[in-house]
Amino acid sequence: MTVRAEASGPTLTYSKMRGVVAILIAFMKQRRMGLNDFIQKIATNSYPCKHSEVQSILKISQPEEPELMNANPSPPPSPSQQINLGPSSNPHAKPSDFHFLKVIGKGSFGKVLLARHKAEEEFYAVKVLQKKAILKKKEEKHIMSERNVLLKNVKHPFLVGLHFSFQTADKLYFVLDYINGGELFYHLQRERCFLEPRARFYAAEIASALGYLHSLNIVYRDLKPENILLDSQGHIILTDFGLCKENIEHNGTTSTFCGTPEYLAPEVLHKQPYDRTVDWWCLGAVLYEMLYGLPPFYSRNTAEMYDNILNKPLQLKPNITNSARHLLEGLLQKDRTKRVGAKEDFMEIKNHIFFSPINWDDLINKKITPPFNPNVSGPSDLRHFDPEFTDEPVPNSIGQSSDSILITASVQEAAEAFLGFSYAPPMDSFL
């Protein structure tokens, strides 16, 4: 493991290095957790809090937005029912259409698997989610938001594409582009930080993707290196749209407490209404992390980290250019009304002096050679995936017979909650 701490001055002693490693292990583990799970965990521990507003933040347990719950669940739709999936419609899709080859990712509600379509012989990333787990944590609205946002992404080069979605009695399936250049987080772990030209290239492609989402009145809300992938050539691909908020006009706001702890903007922590500038704060945090190796206000003590985000001035070391410093100060402005992007959104980012070397037309057309090539040999090259995932065996329960699965009341409730997914027979249920 490459140490991702800022080691300036004298060489670290062995004892100090052990401390750094412990911090980084905790850092990486907690970033894999969902925010609700994370908040509940730390709320039950005795972390010291200096400010009452931080204590108030840690008591949050439920989202403030209404959930798509149905008090009168109905039976699962039959396979013959046609459900409109827009341009991604494939009402006849089912799990047995695929060879599931490797686990390439895991989350709170399921797994992502590398799969080859038996008829097409194309490779896909198939995201398989447990309906029961989603309903238990009242996250169905976020899952449906993810599908809706994926359907709207028709041509943008830096957003992952959805090919189709479908469901069995107890699972949801997203069939997505297969991207195997690795998470940005994985590469940051290995290299500690990036040189400024590389960080600028990634930040420009990320900003382009965020600007496109904003043009559709979508706020992303969960930008972090784990949700930023590299394709086989080294271009950015933004993925995981579960926390997106739709229908946010230019001056519109929302107020749900959600995101990832290290990247939460001050206005989110204050539980104030916030707008699309929350994404530009996150862009600043990711750019800072690319240049320095850790998020800007990071602390192993989460209560202290929240206090830092709310009250601590931004600290920048002198090893970056003035234009990078100016952009970071603008993006990580605690007052969202003064933040870069508050007035003209993406155009302010695009026209900032830090991005003056970027030809934006060439960028969007992928005519700029990426500063790093993942050098993957083909779809089966998994060198950039974490062995934590790829070493896990693929579940082998695909071929269960239909009479071995009971349609319980919870399954019936789940079916009603996820309208818009075509339905496949339970005999193909798996995981």
Automatic annotation (TrEMBL):
Q: Per UniProt, what is one GO molecular function of this protein?
A: protein serine/threonine kinase activity
For region Disordered, the annotated ranges are 66-92
Q: Is Nucleotide-binding tagged as a keyword? A: yes
List the catalytic activities from the record. Answer: L-threonyl-[protein] + ATP = O-phospho-L-threonyl-[protein] + ADP + H(+); L-seryl-[protein] + ATP = O-phospho-L-seryl-[protein] + ADP + H(+)
Q: What is its EC number?
A: 2.7.11.1
Start and end of every AGC-kinase C-terminal domain? 356-431
Protein name (Swiss-Prot/TrEMBL):
non-specific serine/threonine protein kinase
At the highest ranks, the source species' classification is: Eukaryota, Metazoa, Chordata, Craniata, Vertebrata
